[in-house]
């Protein structure tokens, strides 16, 4: 008879030999990022966490330590302040003693109805979701090219694949990000640096908690498993859950004259 502790959840067995050793997480309090870093922590990774809420960053760091992370350091920073990026990134890499993976999760959903009336809100969404990752990734890409290796794993969205009336400002920020990542990959893949564009469909996190039907959205732990596997396999683009690759293929194929009349 097995005497397993009753409260232990059975975790899938994984070969940890491909686990990245040094991971920088930008937007570490994100629901998707937290689920992902828990897997890496369990496998003994070294983590540097950046978030803007000191208390939440400290609590995520403490949790990851108890889950097995070999090393956890943190920085509290509002990433909207792009001028602070170079110093922050240099500090993180010094703390980790190098870099295997930079995981960019920072993002805001914003409010589409507000963005339609208030251009400052629209520009804020574009700043956090596009300008901020572009600033971080330009620095990180050049660092990785210099060392001749590394992975840049970035959370974009299926929302960037086609503009819809219900979220086209957020969607356009992610479309810009996906295009930036495609071009960056085309520039630096040949230098030994992997650029992974992650396109989740709707996932149950703090970002979507107030959305209609959110209880049916994807489990962040399942999404995180696919992200970890895509990093290991050095994939270029990941739709997660996988069904979203097919859904977006269909959505992209709808002719514009039909699409403009749909309530999406
Ligand atoms: N959930 C989904 O359905 C879904 C689908 C497709 C793509 N995504 C993308 O996945 C990424 C992670 O989202 P999530 O679902 O995990 O939502 P989340 O829990 O709300 O995560 C967003 C993260 O971005 C951080 N952030 C926002 N503005 C920041 C700033 N100025 N400085 C520092 N950190 C900032 C948030 O920090 P605070 O905790 O302090 O707010 C939070 O850690 C986002 O880029 C999102 O667009 C999510």
TrEMBL record:
PROSITE patterns according to UniProt: ADH_SHORT
Highest taxon listed in the record's lineage: Bacteria
Residue stretches spanning the membrane: none
Cross-referenced InterPro entries: NAD(P)-bd_dom_sf (IPR036291), Sc_DH/Rdtase_CS (IPR020904), SDR_fam (IPR002347)
Record key words, sorted: Oxidoreductase
UniProt-listed Pfam families: adh_short
Family the UniProt entry places it in: Belongs to the short-chain dehydrogenases/reductases (SDR) family.
Protein name listed in UniProt: SDR family oxidoreductase
Organism from which the protein derives: Terriglobus aquaticus
